[in-house]
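Q: What residues go here?
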């Protein structure tokens, strides 16, 4: 939803904008291309994708500053630059197309690769570490809570019975064995979607980081500055929705989108991965 994002985010053509999940740089590219006096600060903890995005946007290097960091450290990044406030913050959550398509990262159930799933490959435990060491009850809880998978118990049982797991296809096979054939045959999405989502969220602490990032964003926004959250599943969207509602009641934020915006049918046809996107916009009062 690039056009909707830019139209909602950029209210000051000469402003400074924080792309808290820089990724491939698509949204930053739109800002810099359409507003020749705007400046963008991009943050991403994935060094590989950050370098790729930097090369893609090298024509705008005079107005683009990139940092390898977690967006929960956005205040530290800005302080190091001598910047106190920005005019807008974008959170484009989840995993990027680049990460999904690069099998060595282990995010995709559609290609075989090592069970990693870390957005920062230099820190934390990989999916392999977690799947092979965590106890069955905790594993079931992770899959049920973060994946909203009703067959979490049987999937966790199959994972533990087939240890050690080494590759993404090992995990796919465990999920396949854990879901009845009749159920799998009627699923609209791939049967492994929810389990892979759950493990990825747990590995990267995505929900905890979103809560922290939203709280910190309030300290670095100029008045009338906006926050946009693009989420791809209900857990992320719920965190953003409840946070925005609370701050709206407190008179800190003003909700712009009473209901989340969703992609048009045309966009979904062009990019199927966008079909579950929900976009929420708020303004700092």
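A:
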């Amino acid at each position: 939803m690039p056009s909707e994002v830019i139209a909602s985010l950029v209210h000051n053509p000469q402003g400074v904008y924080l792309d808290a999940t820089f990724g491939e740089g698509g949204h930053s590219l739109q800002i810099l291309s359409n507003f020749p006096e705007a400046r963008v600060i991009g943050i991403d903890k994935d060094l590989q994708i950050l370098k790729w995005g930097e090369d893609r946007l090298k024509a705008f290097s005079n107005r683009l500053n990139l940092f390898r960091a977690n967006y929960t450290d956005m205040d530290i990044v800005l302080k190091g630059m001598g910047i106190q406030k920005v005019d807008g913050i974008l959170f484009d959550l989840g995993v990027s197309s680049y990460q999904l398509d690069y099998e060595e990262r282990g995010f995709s159930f559609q290609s075989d690769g090592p069970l990693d799933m870390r957005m920062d490959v230099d820190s934390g435990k990989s999916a392999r570490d977690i799947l092979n060491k965590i106890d069955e009850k905790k594993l079931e809880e992770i899959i049920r809570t973060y994946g909203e998978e009703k067959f979490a118990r049987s999937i966790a049982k199959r994972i533990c019975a087939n240890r050690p797991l080494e590759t993404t296809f090992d995990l796919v096979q465990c999920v396949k064995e854990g879901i009845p054939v009749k159920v799998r045959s009627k699923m609209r999405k791939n049967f492994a979607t929810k389990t892979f989502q759950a493990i990825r969220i747990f590995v990267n602490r995505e929900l905890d980081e979103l809560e922290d990032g939203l709280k910190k964003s309030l300290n670095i926004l100029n008045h009338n500055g906006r926050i946009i959250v693009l989420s791809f599943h209900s857990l992320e969207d719920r965190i953003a929705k409840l946070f925005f509602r609370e701050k709206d009641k407190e008179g800190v934020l003003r909700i712009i989108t009473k209901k989340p915006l969703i992609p048009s049918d045309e966009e979904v046809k062009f990019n199927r991965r966008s079909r579950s996107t929900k976009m929420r916009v708020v303004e700092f009062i």
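A: Context that may help when evaluating the design: The beta strands are 16-19, 39-44, 64-68, 86-92, 221-231, 253-255, 278-284. The longest helix spans residues 234-249.
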